[in-house]
Design a protein that fits this description.
mainly beta, four-stranded antiparallel sheet, Rieske Iron-sulfur Protein
């Protein structure tokens, strides 16, 4: 299992904001939804495109390439053309920072 990767200071990830961290070759999108932190792979499961370029609204992120939407809390694909869920990753807050890791 890989080590935890620092995403940012907690003050840099306020409610409604997101950050991208890299764990090796994996881009991880970390989002603050009303004080709860969620982390998913920053790659649409329909086509290899970064989800961080899309809009985050109501706990969902939309891929700007073809309009697929995903639930950030569960990773579930919510509409076509994506059918596979997003990989989810653990998030922790420690020493004033947000951390995540690719634990697959």
């Amino acid at each position: 299992m890989t080590d935890w990767v620092r995403v940012c200071a907690t003050s840099e990830l306020l409610p409604g904001e997101s950050q991208v961290a890299w764990d090796g070759d994996t881009a991880i999108l970390v989002v603050n939804l009303d004080g709860d932190l969620y982390a998913v792979e920053d790659k649409c499961t329909h086509e290899d495109f970064e989800l961080s370029a899309g809009a985050i609204d109501g706990g969902e992120v939309e891929c700007t390439l073809h309009g697929a939407r995903f639930d950030l809390r569960t990773g579930e694909a919510l509409c076509a053309p994506a059918y596979a869920p997003l990989p989810r990753f653990p998030v922790k807050v420690e020493d004033g920072a947000v951390w995540t890791r690719d634990d697959r």
